[in-house]
Structure to design on (127 residues):
């Protein structure tokens, strides 16, 4: 059974940092892209960042320069380093795997391209 499990969420003050982790089990994800999405209360789930199987990275404009996505060599654990957090970053953060055929930002940002999802981890940034 494929499982993605997020960890690392919590409550921080504006300007602080957090690192989210996503551990994958049940299969090898070295051939897939891995991504992060988030959903704030009352809003739709939105794309945050993705890393392709070749290591290319893609970021939403709202987080570019503050967030960094990475993955371990085996490809089954990925990370989202979040710096200079803002109250508007408050959301449930979901990791995703799949997007096997994506080659550009628009494709990675589309939820339908992702085959596997975690349960989410809450990030709350106070002002």
């Amino acid at each position: 059974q494929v499982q993605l499990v997020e960890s690392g969420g919590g409550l921080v003050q504006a300007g602080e940092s957090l690192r989210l982790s996503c551990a994958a089990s049940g299969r090898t994800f070295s051939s897939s892209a891995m991504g992060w999405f988030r959903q704030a209360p009352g809003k739709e789930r939105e794309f945050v960042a993705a890393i392709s199987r070749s290591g290319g990275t893609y970021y939403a404009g709202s987080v570019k320069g503050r967030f960094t996505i990475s993955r371990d060599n085996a490809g089954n654990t990925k990370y989202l380093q979040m710096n200079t957090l803002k109250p508007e970053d408050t959301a449930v953060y979901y990791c995703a795997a799949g997007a096997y055929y994506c080659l550009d930002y628009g494709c990675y940002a589309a939820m339908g391209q992702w085959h596997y999802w975690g349960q989410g981890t809450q990030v709350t940034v106070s002002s």
Remarks:
- The CA atoms of residues 57 and 127 lie 29 Å apart.
- DSSP finds one helix and eleven strands in the chain.
- The mean pLDDT is 94.
- The longest strand covers residues 18-25.
